[in-house]
Write a structure and sequence with these properties.
It is built from 1 helix and 15 strands, in the order H-E-E-E-E-E-E-E-E-E-E-E-E-E-E-E. It is mainly beta and 239 residues long. The strands form 3 sheets. Strands 1, 2, 3, 4, 12, 13, 14 and 15 form an 8-stranded antiparallel β-sheet that branches. A 4-stranded antiparallel β-sheet has the order 7-6-5-11, with no helix packed on it. The chain has a 3-stranded antiparallel β-sheet with strand order 8-9-10, with no helix packed on it. Strand 8 and strand 9 form a beta hairpin. The longest helix has 25 residues. Keywords: Hydrolase, Protease. Belongs to the peptidase S26 family. It comes from Gluconobacter kondonii. Pfam families: Peptidase_S26 (PF10502).
């Protein structure tokens, strides 16, 4: 005859498995995570609804990686990461948004600490050199779900021969001209690949943008599109 476990036995069995489950979840969240892209700010690289895989310890770990990290931001950005190191220019990173630490955003690293950055007519000038562009032809931008606008696609090249595509809809938008400045220590200059539709380092935190991103906010490096419901051909796309 089959023995039916009592409520006490079930509770005991569940509690005995809990440490193993919590340990698995901790290891998983410390190594990798998945995020859904909510906006058009990284088009054409990432599209609305893409599920992306993120390698969490790519830049070391900080309290920003913890579930309640928004309440644990250090008073100083210096030495705020365990085993920390800086991203490379061109890395696509996820981070706690400085304007709202409860939110995770994604942008591309353009400038590192000590770099001089400026923008003229939409062209990035990094350490006195204009980043090369190659016109890839007309395309469309999905500004929000199922709403499309005409755009031009360019291939931009960062130092180290790092190539990535960007979108432009205007050559003289409100974010296309910025006077030269130097990225301070423990901060990054990040941009969306959709240059006319991204509240990135060109937009201050007070205005809802990223501003100069503290390295503490980093949560990991986006490495691949795990799944795309709207374009299955993008699945397993390496970033």
């Amino acid at each position: 005859m089959t023995r039916i476990p009592t409520l006490r036995q079930l509770t005991r069995d569940i509690l005995s498995c809990l440490p193993v489950l919590l340990g698995f979840l901790t290891i998983h969240s410390a190594l990798a995570a998945a995020y859904i892209v909510p906006s058009a700010s990284m088009e054409p690289t990432l599209r609305i609804g893409d599920q992306i895989g993120v390698i969490v310890p790519s830049y070391g770990l900080s309290t920003a990686n913890l579930p309640f990290g928004d309440a644990l931001k250090p008073s100083s950005e210096t030495n705020s990461r365990l085993f920390g190191h800086l991203p490379h220019r061109g890395d696509v990173v996820v981070f706690r948004a400085p304007a709202n630490l409860h939110q995770t955003w994604i942008k591309r690293v353009i400038g590192l600490p000590g770099d001089t950055v400026a923008l003229v007519h939409g062209r990035v000038i990094l350490n006195g050199t204009v980043l090369p562009w190659k016109d890839m032809g007309p395309t469309r931008e999905e500004s929000r779900k199922n709403v499309w606008r005409a755009a031009e696609r360019y291939e931009e090249t960062l130092p180290g021969n790092i190539h990535h595509d960007i979108l432009k809809m205007s050559q003289d938008g409100e974010l296309d001209n910025i006077a030269p400045f130097t990225v301070p220590a423990s901060h990054l200059f990040v941009m969306g690949d959709n240059r006319d539709n991204s509240a990135d380092s060109r937009v201050s935190v007070a205005d809802g943008g990223v501003g100069l991103l503290p390295v503490w906010n980093l949560q990991g490096q986006a490495r691949a599109v795990l799944w795309s419901w709207r374009d299955i051909g993008r699945t397993a796309l390496v970033l």
